[in-house]
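Next up, a chain.

===
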Amino acid sequence: MGIKEWLIPQDKVFFDLFDRMAALVVLASYRLVDLVDDFSDVKNKVHQIEQMEHDGDRITHEIYEQLNRTFITPLEPEEISKLASALDDILDYIDGTAQKMLNYGIEETDTHMSELAKLVQLSVVELEEAVKSIRAIKEPRMIEERCIEVNRLENLADDVLAHAINEIFRTNDPIAIIKFKDIYEHLEIATDKCEDAANVLSDIAIRHS
């Protein structure tokens, strides 16, 4: 790397990487919804999500590498690190949920899983638009509105989880209770991670507007 590249902020590199990561998370969320709504060819669908998680790890690693090599960054290094970690966490939980569905050997999904998966999907779509907007923060309020919507969706996920657990504990199959409760909770945690990412984006919007 030459002295010019060392001194000049590598805006495009970081924002391009974040755009790629956000798009990948959205794609994984669609794959998750497809898995839950059409619980067939499970092993192949889970494998596809797993590959996306690996791709996400590579993008995250590249972000950290760029952060270590770039003297002047378009955002604070801590902000870049937090956003990269937050987006990666969402992808981890999407993949983790899919892996649990496969490894637990469940025979079918239910409406609670479908609702939670769709809330994850809706959340990451909002996050993708917010991520695109940090390249040039002209309308911080727009980013804030996206983040508020993610917070609202996370609250809905809390309600779905509570209802799902209440319902599953009315059954008489302790093994099914353990499996389904774990899957429900993993999906809900994915929405928590979406909220974490939204909070990072909200802070970035406020600080750089």
